[in-house]
Amino acid sequence: MQKTDITFWLKEKLGWILIVVFSCIPVLIFLAVNDVNELFYDTRETLKTIGLVTGLVGFVLYAINMLLAIRKPWLENFFNGLNQVYIAHHITGGIALCLVLFHPLLLAVQYIDLGSLSSLKNAAVFLLPDTFNSQSTLEFAQEVTAFNSGIIAFIGMVVLLILTFFVKLPYSFWLFTHKFLGVAFLFAGIHVLFINSDVSDSLLLTIYMAVWILIGLGAFVYRTLLGNVLIRRAPYEVKSVAFFEKDVMGIYLAPLEKNIDFKPGQFVYVRFLWSGKDGIVDETHPFSVATNPGIDGMVLYIKALGDFTTNLRNLKVGTVAEIEGAFGKFSYRNFSSSPQVWIGAGIGITPFISMARDYSLYAPPVDLYYTAQTRSELIEQGVLAQYLPETYQNFRYFPFVSQEAQTHLTAEHILQQSGNLQEKEFFICGPPLMMKSMRSQLRKMGVKRSKIHTEEFSMS
User: Does residue 304 carry a pLDDT above 80?
Assistant: First the structure.
């Protein structure tokens, strides 16, 4: 494996390596402070041990899941892009759900005796909340509180994650229910710290789990409870709105304060304020920036792909928008020494417009392929088809109109125009199926995975 391949592999996998390491640490501590022979003495003890381990690992993954949701640019460095961060967020949430499900069920198994029907009742009672009265000791009351907190966390997390992963909810309602994951996490933290278990018996394990409790709660407070205060969002004003073919619109935004910093090709999260009467809900959505850095203001090209983007056609000039960002590793500046091929399909041309406007004499040779169904759908032709090719010898533009060619753009077509694909860096943005197909075609032609870069958020 060459050095560039190793570097790319680390960029993609470093975050996952850290997740595995952080999840395994409590297991290693747990095994170190116990007699392994006793932990796996028989089937019942083995199931109990597995139940304890799933609880430890599930809780750490729960905390990591909340950390990955804070939407900070530094997280991108561990996963090679914010889109990969959210994929990790989704997967860790699903795994945490499974482990949390197994944790109490496996612990309840210790009460089951196949020769006794009453043992089934004991196992079922184990999964129910406990009670205490005025005669209970402080220690017993603490144990009951910790146990019941675990039951509440278990029920809350299962319900919320099932709603997240298996039930299709309106975005606004999904966002509302997501806020209660932090409440479930708080109860889970109380359970972990105060239940009489191997965590409380080991100071090192107690400290480790307490650190993850603080990380998870801190992430929840930062993003959900105090997000409007702690997260920097720059105010912009809608100065003009233009409409193009195929339900595409352009929005020009001017900063009300300082312009945000971004690299060409990156995207931002935008929320339009006080537009409910126009059918535009108060939600945050990602959009690629179509202007180059250093310009006062920014342009967003948006295609109507759902209810939110469709209702943006009602956007009024003068509307205030809050912008958070910028995010993403999809920028030609990150690979400035290699010849490049840019492939934009439909509204996926947006980040390439930003990169094209930033192009200069010092930039690498670029072949830009812009594919659309009809010629009338092609936007920014004054810059892409005229100014840049006439100004810079190393910038070549290839529009591809599917209706005229009666076929889709292929890697073979790109090979005929650009040649020697294996030595180039490829940037692809467009519909998911198009990106998947183009990536597959390029791989079959010998292009390394490390040289193929896709933008997943531009279609949101």
Answer: yes
Give ∠ CA 140-141-143 in degrees, rounded to 5. Answer: 65
Cα 44 to Cα 48, 55, 63, 124, 128, distances in angstroms? 6, 17, 29, 16, 21
* Helix (H), strand (E) at residue 414: helix 411-418
DSSP label of 446: T
d(CA 231, CA 234): 10
| CA–CA separation, 412 and 114 (whole Å) | 65
pTM of the model: 0.86
| Cβ-proximal residues to 61 (8 Å cutoff; 6+ apart), any chain | 19, 23, 92, 95, 96, 99
Q: How far apart are CA 350 and CA 250, in angstroms?
A: 10
Cα–Cα distance between 279 and 29 in angstroms, integer? 54
Q: Which residues contact 10 (CB under 8 A, 6 or more apart)?
A: none
Name the residue with tokens 């342009």: 299
Q: Higher-confidence residue: 14 or 120?
A: 14
pLDDT digits (tens, 9 = 90+) for 331-361: 898 887 789 999 999 999 999 999 999 998 7
Pairing of strands 320-327, 267-272: antiparallel
232: left (phi over 0), alpha (psi -120 to 50) or beta: beta
Per-residue pLDDT reduced to its tens digit, 140-159: 666 777 778 888 888 887 78
Which pairing describes strands 395-401 and 425-429: parallel, antiparallel, or unpaired? unpaired
Q: Check if the beta carbon of residue 61 is closer than 8 Å to that of residue 23.
A: yes
Which two three-digit tokens encode residue 110?
């210790």
Task: Tell me how far apart the alpha carbons of residues 178 and 186 are, in angstroms, rounded to a whole number.
Answer: 14
Query: Which H or E run includes 39?
Result: helix 36-39
